[in-house]
Amino acid sequence: LFAGGPEATAEPRGLLAEGLFDFVVAGEGESAAVEAVSALLESGRGAGDRLASIRGLAVSSAFSGSRTAQAGAGASFGAANSGAAAPGGPSPVARAPVENPDKLVSPWLSGVIDPARYDEALWELTRGCPYRCAYCYESKGTPGLRPLPLGRIEAELELFARSGVNQVFVLDPTFDADRARAARILDLIREKGRGIRWKFEVRAELLDRSLVRRFAAVDCALQIGLQSADPAVLASIGRSLDREAFRRKLGLLDEAGVTFGLDLIFGLPGESYAGLRRSLDFALALQPNHLDLFPLALLPGTELADRAAELGIEADPEPPYLLRSTRELPPADLARATELAAACDLFYSRGRAMSWFLQALRPLKLRPSVFVERFARWLAVSGQGGAARGEELPRRRIEALQLGFLEESYRSAGLAELFAALRDIVLFNGAWGRALAEGESEDVVLSYDPDEVLGPAALDLGAFVRSAKPRRSRLRVAPAPQGGVMVARISGAGAPAGRPRDDARARPGRSPGSGPGRAAEDRSRRGPEGGSGRGRAESGPKDRSRRDPGGTRDRGPGPERGPESGRRPR
After folding, report:
1. How many Cβ atoms from other residues are within 10 Å of residue 440's Cβ?
2. Strand 2-3 and strand 23-25: pairing?
3. What is the pLDDT of residues 277-292, one digit of tens each?
4. What's the mean pLDDT in 403-407?
5. d(Cα 330, Cα 326) in Å, to the nearest integer?
6. What Rg value do the Cα atoms of the chain yield, rounded?
7. Distances (CA, A) of 297 to 315, 344, 451
8. Per DSSP, which regions of 373-481 are E strands?
9. Is the pLDDT of residue 554 over 80?
10. DSSP classification of residue 349
11. For residue 491, what pLDDT band results from cuts at 50, 70 and 90?
12. pLDDT at position 495, please?
């Protein structure tokens, strides 16, 4: 039994010492693993000496007689927690030689993995990362980018399309690191990958209008690592941030109707709980389709792991190596941050609130972080704390929690007269999202005429309620036969009957607020009339004027979001 991968590369001796594996491969393992298996097939358990001579292998004593774990030949890499030996100890472990991407065998084209057996696929286009973020395994990887051949990529793309793959998660940690190549691949996807949903990890600062237009031409969602809104905190981990430039780049995505989500990490060196709240305010003001807010994972072999004592960082010694405390974030504040993250995930991301979230906060005159903190306290006081701690809840149950908290908040603020209009917006967005993502049909009873309360006039709820007259209406919201959403008025509910309207005409108005926005996508695309929400409630990506309602597709495929998976934050 043997292991490889980022953790095996970072700490081969520690992994081997657990006694589970016969050998561990450090570095890229395609050639080293084949050489090791060939030795075993030829010599069985007498292959110890030959295994020990293979660069990149750390071999257990089961294969090396009385010797302790033995390293393959070659130069050492790294220092503490990265395979290097202490003075007087066994020789250090060398990484396996870097693979030539032109000679790598495709697991898809070779038939090792049959994409026809799966709805989703993980797709590697390039190895390496040009960045050196201190929390990431890539920070000590081979510098530079090593692209796989475009001919192989095109053949794999054609295979995915023939095989009926529905979604592809691109594994490159920075897909747009080489803009010209990214543009060429997006052109190929547009030409040959129709009918497939694509997920990319990108750097916002690398986006330009040409690349954004290409993203908009395919059915895709982008994940963008913000990590913190404090430039000083980011500088301490090898990143940078120009806040205004970041806003402008995301504005390009909004204009083009491209779905995006953001990441924030709490527990980075130098960031306190107050700093986390400021980062949350900055992130939610950008209206991401969803926000992944998670604690630092002190991954072995990374720069932060090497400097943990110096920086005052304490973390669990076992996977997933989650943070225990920092100088700036002691345990009590870490607990508060964890509650804040869970409440944000429930209300905003799982609750598909993107398209109306800021609209709901405007009358309350609250910053997003204050609102989310109050929601977390409300959940705890009402005995609903488990809902925010990852408890699986039906979409309608989450919506009921949202409405319960919003109603109490508006009443407490003396704004009860505004709640009926806000409730209409939340209910319609929820029904739209469920029709788009889960294929559910439902009737929605509104207090106001839908053409008014779901349009731009209701962006200012106070002004809308002062001028509009309540008019009870009933709508049927259902998935459309050819994709998208159908909305029809139902007679007998105070409004004249009307023929079903397709999603292009049933779009509610510009966000922040009224109208299905990106949230109904996996997290979706820019939306309804006026372009407030990215969404793909339409049958294709042609309509750039809107986002889906509330995050209708969830985050897959590919690695789960969050440090538990050991994924690389961007």
Report:
1. 15
2. parallel
3. 999 999 999 999 999 9
4. 98
5. 6
6. 26
7. 8, 19, 47
8. 442-446, 473-479
9. no
10. I
11. low
12. 40
Nearest to 570 by CA among 130, 125, 136: 136
Which amino acid, 137?
Answer: Y
Give residue 91's pLDDT band: very low, low, confident or very high (50, 70, 90): low
In this structure, are residues 533 and 552 in contact, taking their beta carbons and an 8 Å threshold? no
Question: How many Cβ atoms sit within 10 Å of the Cβ of residue 340?
Answer: 22
- Beta strand 70-71 with 57-59: parallel, antiparallel or unpaired? antiparallel
Residues 6 or more apart whose Cβ sits within 8 Å of residue 37: none
Identify residue 344 by its one-letter amino acid code: C
What single letter denotes the amino acid at residue 557? P
At residue 40, the 3 state secondary structure works out as helix
214 by DSSP, 3-state: which?
A: helix
The bridge status of strand 291-295 relative to strand 259-266 is parallel
Q: Higher pLDDT residue, 529 or 275?
A: 275
CA 567 to chain centre: 10
CA–CA dist 93, 70 (Å, integer): 8
Q: Which helix (H) or strand (E) segment is 14 a member of? A: helix 12-17
* DSSP H/E element including 13: helix 12-17
As a 3-state breakdown, the chain gives helix, strand, coil percent values, each rounded to 5, of 40, 15, 45
Angstrom CA distances, 499 to 482, 492, 528, 559, stand at 17, 14, 20, 43
Q: What does the pLDDT read at residue 179?
A: 97
E strand or H helix at 212, and its extent?
helix 209-216
What is the C-alpha to C-alpha distance for residues 437 and 423, in angstroms, rounded to an integer?
Answer: 21
Residue 441: HSE in the Cβ half-sphere, 13 Å Cα cutoff: 8
What are the structure tokens assigned to 483, written together?
A: 């994709």
Highest mean pLDDT among 7-16, 210-219, 517-526: 210-219
Average the pLDDT over 477-501 and give the result: 70
Confidence band (pLDDT; 50, 70, 90) for 545?
very low
Can you count the helices (H) and strands (E) in the chain?
A: 20, 17
How far is residue 41 from each of residues 3, 50, 159, 208, 227, measured CA to CA in Å?
Answer: 18, 12, 33, 52, 47
Cα(334)–Cα(145) distance, integer angstroms: 36
For 108, the token pair is 């898809």
Counting Cα atoms < 13 Å in the Cβ hemisphere of 492 gives 3
d(CA 559, CA 561): 6
Contact 144, 130 (CB under 8 A): yes
Dihedrals phi, psi of 532, to nearest 5 degrees: -85, -20
Q: What is the 3-state secondary structure (H, E, C) of 485-512?
A: EEEEECCCCCCCCCCCECCCCCCCCCCC
